Structure formats: structure tokens, C-alpha cells
Amino acid sequence: MTRAISLHDVSKAYTRGARVVDRLSLDIAPGEFLVLLGPSGCGKSTVLRMIAGLEEIDEGELLLDGEYANDLSPSGRDMAMVFQNFALYPNMTSRNNIGFPLRIESPGADPSLRVDATARMLGIEDLLDRLPGQLSGGERQRVAMGRAIARHPSAFLMDEPLSNLDAKLRTHLRAEISQLTKELGVTTIYVTHDQAEAMSLGDRVAVLRGGVLQQVDSPRAVYALPGNVFVAAFIGTPRINLLRGLVRAPLDGAMTISLGKQFLRLPEPLSLDHQLLRVQQGREVIVGLRSEAVRIAKHSSARPGEVPLTGLVEHVEFQGHEILVHFDTGSSPAVVPELEAPRPRPGRPARRRRREGSVLTRLRERTAAGRAGPVVALEHPGDAEPRPAPAEPRLPGDLIVRTTPDLALRHGMQVPLLVDLAHLFVFDQHGDRICPSPAHLPDLEE
Prior knowledge:
Blueprint: E1 5-13, E2 19-28, E3 33-37, H1 44-52, E4 59-64, E5 67-68, E6 79-82, H2 94-105, H3 112-122, H4 137-150, E7 155-159, H5 167-184, E8 187-192, H6 195-201, E9 204-209, E10 212-217, H7 219-224, H8 229-234, E11 241-248, E12 256-258, E13 263-265, H9 272-275, E14 284-289, E15 294-296, E16 306-318, E17 323-328, H10 350-355, H11 358-369, E18 399-403, E19 414-420, E20 424-427, E21 433-435
Parallel strand pairs: 3-8, 3-9, 6-7, 7-8
Antiparallel strand pairs: 1-2, 1-4, 4-5, 9-10, 11-12, 11-14, 12-13, 14-20, 15-19, 16-17, 16-19, 17-18, 20-21
Helix pairs in contact: 2-4, 3-4
């Protein structure tokens, strides 16, 4: 039996009163595989523990199959949890670890048949008589999953179960988890900070930031239509290029988005999305371009909807089947709080560094963490005291382009680029997406 799980305006705060989960509402259908995705400290594990009953819910409601379950004990929720650190009993064999919860539930019953069936499902029959210390990391994780599966729970709760494993093993076990959960048809909530895991595993992905739900949708929709700049920056490898821009929409000329030394000229007639950008005239915006939205080609070979840029090669990353080229286009990157922060100047003492600018920094962070606060910190040229530059830039250049490995590019080359405006994202100063526009515009007559 699987079950539906619903969270209605759920909040959780600890000693200092700061909410680690803030009015979270989420409905998970029976048999669905939902991934909670976000950076460290965003509250995703706390959400999982509240569903399991390991943390109390301060505000809001948890419903299991439509019934109020806030006060239900963990054992009464019929859920199985898989932890990041495996949590195996070191003095028990794999057989006893898998069968332990079965013996607790039914002290007089023999768990051997269910243990053997679970071991066959996971391919660990030959490991049943070994202790955890005699197993590799991947084998221990399979045993931990077996302990959860053998119970035949109504829901699986997985808290970053693969984060302690090497990359190759993570990929292999990811496929196994996907196949197992589909075969079992059990509701699964999977917590991870790895967006590759989220995109490959989940029926839906729920992105959290600062305890607030940012967006929940299918992996394809979250990638193609991110609700705000935080989601756009967190989803996708390499990360989306985020540049500061300025909308210029003269009545007697073409609309452009200035990127500093260069600009994107929007082709006429303007599409509906680009027409809606007119209300941003004279305002600073954030331009988002994924690496596949830009190609290296002569300006004369532009296709409909492509506009020219020029970039100076700063760095070339060879990936085997492709290369990632870092260009300097003279643009200013936008900064997404909680994903990146400026590093302090070298040589400054730690105590003094915390004092200088700390109030402004904390105010920015607190404001950004709020539901209606800005997601992107944009620096203005006219600021009296500009933010210090990082000691070591996060990445060279301001634009990353994905291309084939047969191109011979070297540092310092000036290269023609073509930007496909069909894949252009534009966000306002608060980080909300304004282009592409929402699929359904509000009806003013309603």
C-alpha cells in the first residue's frame, strides 16, 4: 500500500526563532517520486524529518491519505527512512540488519523469507552473512535500502543516500533506485543537493531556498521554464550565464538589452514575450543564457531569431565529447545569494572582516531569504562604497558556451557568437522571471 502525503503551510523554527522551513505547502501523490532539491541548509532534510515524525511541526498540517498526522508517532506512519550515513548496526550481519525492523514489528515471526526476497531484488545474496565493516560503501548502502524495502512501507524517505559514494557508484545506484521504486510503486521523497540526481530520478522536483519553496514541477519544466533566477542558476550544468542588462525601448527604434559594452537587439516584429519587456524600459534586469543558447559562428550565418555578440576567449575546458569555452564579452555577471558570495580581501584579519560591511551583508541575506525579497544582489556603479572584488574569481570570463571539440580555440582569440533569442531568459531585479512570460496571462475581467 502506498499513500498520499500533503503538507499545508508547514513551518519549523529552532532556538533563535529563525524559520528553517517557512510555510511550505506540497502535495505528493500516491506512488510519486518527488525530489527535494536545494543547497545545504535550505531545510530539505528538516522537511523529510517532519514527514517521518523525527521533528515536530511548529505550524501547519501534515496529512497522510487526507488524515491529520502531526501527532502521529514515527512508528505509526508506516514509513521507511534511508539515511546518508547508512546507519547499520556494526555488530550485526547484513541479514540481521535487514531483518531487524521485521523482528521488532512481529517478534514471533521468521523474517528469513522477506530478507531473502529483498536480497535477491538488490543482488546482495552473497553479502548476507558479512558485517558492515566487511562491505564497501555501495554494498552498505544496498543493505540499508534492503532494510527499508523489506518492511513493505507505505513511503520511502531518502536523505541524500548516495552523497558518500564515488561518482561512478552514485550513477549506478541512481539507476537502481529509479528502477526499484518504479517496480515497487511506493511513494518516495528523495532529498539531495545534486541537481543531476534530481533531474534523473524525480517525477517532480521541488526546489527549496532558505526554507521557502521556489518551484515544483517536472524536471523538464524546471529546466526549461524556471520560476525565478535562483531556480535557473541551481538547475543545469554548466550553470546558466547570468548577466546584468538594461532594457532600452525607444518609441522610434529597435528594442535592445544592453549588456555593458555590447547589446542584444530584439528582432522585429517583436514576439509577445519581447513586447512585454517594454514595461522594463530603463530598468536593470538579469539576462539568463544557457550554454546551448549561444553558438560560435560567423555573424553572416545567423538564423532567424539569432543576434550577434563577440567574445574574447578566456579559458577552454576540454570535456572529451565537448568543450566549454569561457568568453569575456564585457558584461557584468549577476550574483545569486546563497549560491555564491564575494570572498574577503586577502590579508585582512577575520575579526575586522566580520565587522566591515557585515550589517549590510546580513541585511541583504535576510532580505533575500524572505518570500518577497530580492533573489539577486545587483551592484550599482553609483554606490558610495562598492563591494570588494573576489580575491579569486569563481570562473574566468562572463559567458560559457558549449561547443564541439573540433574547434581550435586559444586564449585571447576574438570569436563571433550568435545568441538564439528563443532561449533567452530575462528576470527582474527581484529575480522573478519576466521572459518567457507565464503560460497563462491573468484575465483582467475575472
